């Protein structure tokens, strides 16, 4: 069981982002940031989750909250996934798993009867001071974006 990160400051990190950008957590200071980790581009659950964050994105922005998605996929994969779904937020490529490990989202999972290391679908709401205010681990994709938006509104 991974210890909760709620109440802890997230160390600064940077990752390559879609659109040829570099995402730096410290650049988000002063406003909340929702960081969601997902297993893989173009899979049913991840497509549903990204679509729900897309559909609610304007409401996150209205509340001053940035949204980013992170997986181990390449930037090229992310660019295609983002374009296909028309995502208005950036996807970050953590191909080396450093940020995934920082948040403790790499888990042993069963895939076709084999044990593999993969990302456990998880989301973290970080306030403008860099402190984790909410975390959701091992979540179901459907309905999660609305739940996260509600938490942003309560900040």
Question: What does this molecule look like?
Answer:
- With 155 residues, the protein is of the alpha/beta class.
- Helices cover 29% and strands 30% of the residues.
- It contains 4 helices and 9 strands.
- The protein has helices at residues 44-62, 75-85, 98-102, 144-153, and strands spanning 14-17, 21-24, 33-37, 66-71, 90-93, 106-111, 114-119, 122-126, 132-137.
- The strands form 3 sheets. A 5-stranded mixed sheet has the order 5-4-3-8-9. A two-stranded antiparallel sheet has the order 1-2. It has a two-stranded antiparallel sheet with strand order 6-7.
- Helix 2 (75-85) links the parallel strand 4 (66-71) and strand 5 (90-93).
- The longest helix has 19 residues, at 44-62.
- The radius of gyration is 14 Å and the shape is globular.
- The mean pLDDT is 94.
SSE blueprint and pairings:
Blueprint: E1 14-17, E2 21-24, E3 33-37, H1 44-62, E4 66-71, H2 75-85, E5 90-93, H3 98-102, E6 106-111, E7 114-119, E8 122-126, E9 132-137, H4 144-153
Parallel strand pairs: 3-4, 4-5
Antiparallel strand pairs: 1-2, 3-8, 6-7, 8-9
């Amino acid at each position: 069981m991974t210890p909760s990160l709620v109440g802890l400051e997230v160390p600064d990190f940077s990752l390559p982002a879609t659109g040829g950008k570099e995402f730096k957590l410290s650049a988000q200071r002063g406003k909340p940031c929702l960081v969601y980790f997902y297993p893989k581009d173009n899979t049913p659950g991840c497509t549903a989750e990204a679509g729900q964050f897309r559909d609610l994105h304007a409401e996150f922005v209205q509340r001053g909250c940035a949204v980013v998605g992170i997986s181990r996929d390449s930037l090229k994969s992310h660019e295609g996934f983002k374009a296909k779904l028309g995502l208005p937020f950036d996807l970050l490529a953590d191909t080396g798993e450093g940020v995934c490990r920082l948040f403790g989202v790499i888990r042993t999972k069963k895939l076709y009867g084999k044990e593999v290391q993969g990302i456990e679908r998880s989301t973290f709401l970080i306030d403008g001071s860099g402190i984790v205010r909410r975390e959701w681990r091992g979540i179901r994709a459907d309905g999660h974006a609305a739940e996260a938006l509600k938490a942003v509104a309560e900040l």
